[in-house]
Amino acid sequence: MRERYCRVCGGWHQLDAWPHNCMPAQNLAQSDLPAPHFVSDTIEIQSMHDGKHYTSKAKLRSAYRAAGVVEIGNEKPQPIEKPKADRKAIRNELRRVYAEYNA
After folding, report:
1. pLDDT given for residue 76 in this prediction
2. Which superkingdom heads the taxonomic lineage of this protein's source (predicted)?
3. How far apart are CA 4 and CA 23, in angstroms?
4. Which of 53, 81, 87, 94 gives 20 to 30 Å between its CA and that of 69?
């Protein structure tokens, strides 16, 4: 027989015959998670574009879109391409400076 210590009553019970009154109370309405994942639309913010106060993220973003403002935050930055160096112009400038100071 396997027994285990009961945290409710402080006694020992058989695993296959656990007393009903020592079962932990379970609320079926609760989730196993510490808190449900909920993202609210409400926000108290003043727009940096038009200075108005907004209480909804959706209304703020629609005002930004209507004005053509790009909201930065979750967008992935585009890779910045380095401009190609004009090697011919660099070479000619080096030759000119070398000729000017070594003449």
Report:
1. 65
2. Bacteria
3. 13
4. 81
Q: Encoding tokens for residue 3?
A: 């027994």
- Output the six-digit token pair for 35: 């808190």
pLDDT at 53 over 90: yes
Q: Helix or strand or coil: residue 7?
A: coil
Q: Which of 101, 97, 100, 77 is nearest to 89 (CA)?
A: 97
State the DSSP string of 50-99: T--EEEEHHHHHHHHHHHTPPPPSSSPPPPPPPPPP-HHHHHHHHHHHHH
Structure tokens at 28: 């079926």
At 47 the pLDDT is 86
Tens-place pLDDT, residues 7-32: 888 889 888 888 888 877 666 666 66
Report yes or no on whether pTM surpasses 0.90.
no
Residues listed for the chain = 103
* Integer Cα distance of 26 and 20 in angstroms: 12
One DSSP character per residue, 20-33 reads: GGGSPP--TTS-SS
